[in-house]
Amino acid sequence: MKRRTALALALLATTGSACSRLDPPDIEHLTIAAGPEGSVYYTLGKALAKAAQDEWGMPTHVLTTTESVDNLRYVGEGEADLGFATVDTCVLARLGDYPFDAGQPVNALGGLYEDYLHIVVRADSAILAVSDLLGKVISTGLGDSGTQIVSSRVLEAARLFGMPHLELSIVEASQALAAGRIDAFFSLGGVPTPEIAKLAQQLPIRVLPVPAELIKMQGIYGWTYLSRSIQPGIYQLKTEVETIGIPNVIVVRDDIPDTTAYRFTELLFAAKQRLAQAHPEAGRLDQRSALATYSVPLHPGAALYYRQAKPLV
């Protein structure tokens, strides 16, 4: 308790003395585990790195990864300072369940926005539901990615067990669908996902609804999976599409100093405007909603930031 009080006073004092820049954490450079190129994670990772350069005057590195699983491994093993991840993947990481070989020591700095599941097909395709994917050529996302975890659970809910599938990045999958080499691909990301929006400019697409599969998944995995809709007009869609929303968080190792976690959280909110300029999903970042990290505990340094910010007052 005394340590936390002393930390709070020190942070208030240094914050008050800051001029044009935020006070930096006690690190020499910042590494962010982001995602594949064309993803919202990657877009926001680049924007957050630029904010760190401007505010702290330190070098940064943004890792191109296969999404949540990779990010959690990088952070858990100390090879990255920050990482983006979906909460369902965080649960597996902390428990050390497949695809993780051991528990990952990660905490959250805060909730960000919700990733939406996209199951993309050509608009002229006869595939209208998940069950219609039987016998088709599909991509379920890169191996050991958050997309692949969700796609496997959706296919199991549709009783499509052991389906052959490709493991393509979102860029590769978009190109393959446009060329007619695959019939559908799964993607997990904010709305709009840049690469899918780019694809929709090239050819008409549809996104498959998953209401029945969602109900089954909620029965097994709880409210980690939420009922959400992609609105008409996005990706030039003509009708609303019922899909799955998955909250995501930004994570750090649980053993970093409280002051470091505090500074990271402070940067996140200071950079909100530039993050939103990079991608509109970042406009959802809010100190109240950021407290909702589901079963992923907040790092004590981040919790201190929110107590001082008093978002619930």
Automatic annotation (TrEMBL):
PROSITE patterns: PROKAR_LIPOPROTEIN (PS51257). Residues 1-20 form the signal peptide. The keyword Signal applies. Keywords: Signal. Gene3D superfamilies: Periplasmic binding protein-like II (3.40.190.10). The keyword Signal applies. SUPFAM superfamilies: Periplasmic binding protein-like II. InterPro entries: TRAP_TAXI. Pfam families: NMT1_3 (PF16868). This is C4-dicarboxylate ABC transporter substrate-binding protein. It comes from Rhizocola hellebori.
